[in-house]
Design goal:
The chain is α/β, with parallel strands linked by helices. The protein has helices at 11-14, 17-28, 41-50, 66-90, 129-137, 160-171, 204-213, 220-232, 246-251, and strands at residues 2-9, 33-38, 57-58, 61-62, 95-98, 106-110, 122-127, 141-144, 147-149, 155-157, 175-183, 201-202, 237-242, 256-258. The protein has a single domain (2-258), classed as Acetylglutamate kinase-like (Carbamate kinase, 3-Layer(aba) Sandwich), CATH 3.40.1160.10. The protein contains nine helices and 14 strands. Strands 5-8-2-1-11-13-14-12 form an eight-stranded mixed beta sheet, with helices on both faces. The protein has a two-stranded antiparallel sheet with strand order 3-4. The longest helix has 25 residues, at 66-90. The structure holds adenosine-5'-diphosphate and N-acetyl-L-glutamyl 5-phosphate (X2W). Belongs to the acetylglutamate kinase family. ArgB subfamily.
Length: 260
C-alpha cells in the first residue's frame, strides 16, 4: 500500500499570514502523496461581522442559516482555498482546490433538527476515495475547503476536523494513511497554560482522565474525538502537532501521537 499523508490546518494558523506561509512551506517539503483540509472559522466570523451577520457556535459547530452559508462558502471555498492553492503552486506543489461538492468527493446530509437547529450544517455520509485517488494519480494535491453537498443539491457547512477524519478513514481503504492535525500549539498539552507540557503519547484512558480534570477542553475535545475515530477505523497513525513542525512530525515524530 502506498503511503498517504492527510493534513488538517486550523483557523488560528490560517488567520496569521506569516504562520500560514511557514506551514505551507513545511507541508510542501513532505515527500509522497498528500491531501490538505483547511478550516478558516476565525476568518468566516470576521467577514460575517463586517457584513452585520452574527456568529453563534454550539458545541464548536457554527449555526449556519442561509446568509451564513453564503459567507462560509465564499470564505472557505473561495478566499481561503484559493489563497492556499496559489501559495502551494508557488512552492511547486500542484494543488487543486476543492469543496466536497467538486467531483462529488464528499457527500453529506443536512443535520437533522433535534434539540438544536444547526441550519445548513452537513453530516458526512460518503467520501468518494476513488475519485480522490484519481486526482492523486495525476500528481495533484487536493486542498479541501470544509464545504460539502447533499443529494438535494444543497451546499452544507461541515467541521474541518470531521472532514479530515472522514477523508482519512476512506482513503485508508487504498493507502497507508497518516492523519495530522496541525494548529498553533506544540501538541495536546497536559497543562493548557504551559506550552511545553506536550503529551507525547495519548491513549483513550489518558484522554478520559485529562477531560475529566478539565485540562483537555474546548475545541480540543471534538478534535480528539475525530482523531481517535480515525485511528479506530483503519488510519495507521494520527498526530497532533504545531503547524511549523508538520514535516518533522511526519518524518521524525513531534507533537502528540495517539495510541489505542
Ligand atoms: N490540553 C489542550 N492542549 C492543547 N490545546 C487545547 C487543550 N485544551 C484545549 N485546547 C484548545 O483547543 C484549541 C484547538 O481547537 P480548535 O480551536 O478547534 O482548533 P482549530 O481551529 O485549529 O482546529 C487550542 O487553540 C486550545 O485553545
Ligand atoms: C459546521 C462548522 O462548524 N463548520 C466550521 C467549518 C470551519 C472549521 O472547522 O474551521 P476551523 O478548523 O478553523 O475551526 C465553521 O464554520 O466554523
Amino acid at each position: 500500500m502506498d503511503t498517504l499523508t492527510v493534513i488538517k490546518i486550523g483557523g488560528n494558523v490560517i488567520d496569521n499570514p506569516a504562520a500560514l506561509t511557514r506551514f505551507l512551506t513545511s507541508f510542501s517539503s513532505i515527500p509522497g502523496a498528500k491531501i490538505l483540509i483547511h478550516g478558516g472559522g476565525k476568518i468566516a466570523t470576521q467577514v460575517a461581522e463586517k457584513l452585520g451577520i452574527k456568529t453563534t457556535m454550539v458545541d464548536g459547530r457554527r449555526i449556519t442559516d442561509q446568509p451564513m452559508l453564503d459567507v462560509v462558502t465564499m470564505v472557505y471555498g473561495g478566499l481561503v482555498n484559493k489563497q492556499i492553492v496559489a501559495q502551494l503552486q508557488a512552492l511547486d506543489v500542484n494543488a487543486i482546490g476543492l469543496t466536497g461538492a467538486d467531483a462529488g468527493t464528499v457527500l453529506a446530509i443536512k443535520r437533522p433538527v433535534k434539540d438544536i437547529d444547526y441550519g445548513m450544517v452537513g453530516d458526512i455520509q460518503e467520501v468518494d476515495s476513488g475519485q480522490i485517488q484519481f486526482f492523486l494519480r495525476q500528481d495533484l494535491t487536493p486542498v479541501f475547503a470544509p464545504i460539502t453537498y447533499s443529494t438535494a443539491g444543497e451546499l452544507l457547512n461541515t467541521n474541518a476536523d470531521t472532514m479530515a477524519s472522514a477523508i482519512a478513514v476512506d482513503m485508508a481503504h487504498h493507502n497507508n494513511v497518516t492523519l495530522v492535525y496541525c494548529f498553533e500549539k506544540k501538541g495536546v498539552l497536559a497543562n493548557p497554560d504551559d506550552d511545553d507540557s506536550v503529551i507525547t503519547e495519548l491513549n483513550p484512558a489518558l484522554y478520559a482522565e485529562h477531560k475529566a480534570a478539565g485540562s483537555i477542553n474546548k475545541g480540543m475535545i471534538p478534535k480528539l474525538d475525530n482523531a481517535f475515530k480515525a485511528l479506530d477505523n483503519g488510519v495507521a497513525k494520527v498526530i497532533i502537532c504545531h503547524a511549523d513542525e508538520v514535516a518533522s512530525a511526519v518524518q521524525q515524530g513531534a507533537g502528540t501521537t495517539l495510541t489505542k
